[in-house]
Amino acid sequence: MTDDASTGFRPTGPAGVRGETPLEMQDPKTQLGRLLAASVAHKPFSELSDVTFHHRGAELVGHVLLDTVEEAGYTLDDFDAVGALTAAAVPLVTSMITAAASRGQDLDGFVMDFVYPSVKGPSIKGKRVILVDSWLSEKSYVQTSSLVTLRNGNELSLDFGIVGNEGAEVLAVAALIGGPFDALKVIHPVTGDETDLPFIRAFDEDELRAEADDAADDAATNA
């Protein structure tokens, strides 16, 4: 048995739990990653509702997404609103608004409405916005009223005119879980016009899935 170099003391307790930091004492992104890993284990796709509506998960989601977009170059001074691409993203928007308020910043939210082309929420006229979703990757299939579909790896077919007609500027698309690409090609389904937008992901899908499957396998082995 060797001493812990950081403390000078020998580790004690069962070998399986030595040095394991309780979830609530880990940094927010690590905490959220563990919750998400449990949600996606051995699943082809998940709307992540068991995390985004979780009492702790909801708080973590807001702060981690704000931190992630800031690391990508967008501080709370750079955008005015966040918009949900799908129903699964609505709790993400709420969490980000709440997290921003706790930091003393005002942030509006809205939902893309593809049935009656418009947005639901405060006016976004003249605002800079970031669109968000729960999971966007090459392996996930995301659809809202047949108008939002991730296809061919990184092309997002979206009636982008909805946001433009509201007088807003889209800065980027962000997802809680995402694929390995750094940009999305947004294609207007009517005109065919293409726009490249930065893509920001809080967690890489492959890394998170590998972690999730390993944890699930270990749990099954130890059961």
Automatic annotation (TrEMBL):
Record region (Disordered): 1-24
Transmembrane segments: none
Keyword tags: Glycosyltransferase, Transferase
One GO molecular-function entry: glycosyltransferase activity
The name this protein goes by in its record: Orotate phosphoribosyltransferase
Species for this entry: Bifidobacterium avesanii
